[in-house]
């Protein structure tokens, strides 16, 4: 079976975006703490390949994924293709020199993890980045295809999640890999936690206000800016009739409010390019106040996804062409 390459550049859900921002913050804080204490945080090449079980999954995979992409190799002793694939992955983990961590999971001993990942057959390879699971490929694969997938993984992890990997020191003692710790408490943690609780309880008004409270003190706070944009989007689409919204938008492409509503639905459903393309087209075909209204909403939707997302970069160029 050929590997199923990731499609990370065009699929974004709101939870993943939030996790990306949190991962970036943790990575920056970890680097700052290492610099402050004079530590290098370096690991041995032997620490780049680890065995993981259900008891240590949260610590060894989920927590570590906030500092480095974790590639998971699901295998079993009786699986002949696994015996061919696993050594390749182990060798590449060392060759990539800390750009990803390889976690090996024996499915016979960890049936619950196999079920949680929805694995139907092995070998199966996943990645976890900032707590988000991404399928890489299932079955045997050639080394060239594996390298292509890993190259894409480490590129996305760095560009979108701010994860530059681990520092590797050949002279470091094996077993000295630092565990991912909790980020230092920030001055707005209680307000951000209140916003998160409000979102979990579907109290979108409360979440919006909590994020606004943070931004009143720190207008450039990245997590609050992102959270506010997400909460406001969810509040706008909460009471929409999706079928009616899409019917209205299809019936009159010149109706700016109809196109804005449809774009909100597109983005809330994870259809990033569709949402941006719809509003860029609306900007191109309108003028005056209508054009400005569409442009402003497009900029607001950029905030939901994050400025470094590839779709935002592309849409900004398209918007510039539509305006000028």
Automatic annotation (TrEMBL):
Region of interest (Disordered), ranges: 167-186
InterPro entries attached to this UniProt entry: Thioredoxin-like_sf, Thioredoxin_CS, Thioredoxin_domain, TPR-like_helical_dom_sf
Superkingdom classification of source: Bacteria
Bias type Low complexity, positions: 173-186
Domain Thioredoxin: 21-155
UniProt name for this protein: Tetratricopeptide repeat protein
């Amino acid at each position: 079976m050929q590997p199923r390459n990731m499609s990370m550049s065009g699929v974004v859900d709101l939870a993943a975006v939030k996790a990306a921002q949190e991962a970036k913050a943790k990575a920056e804080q970890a680097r700052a703490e290492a610099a402050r204490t004079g530590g290098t945080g370096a690991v041995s090449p032997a620490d780049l390949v680890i065995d993981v079980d259900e008891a240590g999954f949260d610590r060894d995979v989920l927590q570590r994924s906030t500092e480095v992409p974790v590639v998971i190799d699901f295998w079993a002793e009786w699986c002949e293709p696994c015996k061919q694939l696993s050594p390749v992955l182990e060798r590449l983990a060392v060759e990539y020199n800390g750009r990803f961590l390889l976690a090996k999971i024996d499915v016979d001993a960890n049936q619950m993890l196999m079920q949680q990942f929805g694995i139907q057959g092995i070998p199966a390879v996943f990645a976890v980045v900032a707590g988000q699971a991404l399928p890489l490929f299932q079955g045997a694969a050639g080394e060239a295809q594996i390298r292509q997938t890993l190259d894409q993984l480490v590129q996305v992890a760095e560009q979108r999640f701010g994860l530059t990997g681990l520092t590797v020191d050949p002279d470091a003692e094996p077993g000295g890999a630092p565990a991912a710790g909790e980020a230092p408490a920030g001055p707005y943690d209680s307000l951000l936690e209140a916003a998160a609780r409000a979102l979990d309880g579907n109290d979108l008004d409360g979440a919006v206000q909590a994020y606004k409270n943070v931004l009143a003190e720190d207008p450039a706070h990245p997590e609050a800016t992102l959270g506010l944009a997400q909460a406001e989007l969810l509040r706008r689409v909460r009471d929409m009739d999706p079928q009616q919204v899409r019917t209205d938008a299809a019936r009159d492409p010149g109706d700016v409010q109809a196109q804005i509503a449809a774009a909100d639905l597109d983005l809330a459903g994870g259809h990033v390019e569709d949402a941006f393309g719809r509003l860029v087209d609306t900007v191109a075909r309108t003028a005056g106040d209508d054009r400005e209204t569409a442009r402003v909403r497009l900029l607001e939707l950029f905030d939901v996804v994050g400025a470094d997302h590839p779709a935002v970069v592309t849409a900004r160029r398209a918007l510039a062409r539509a305006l000028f």
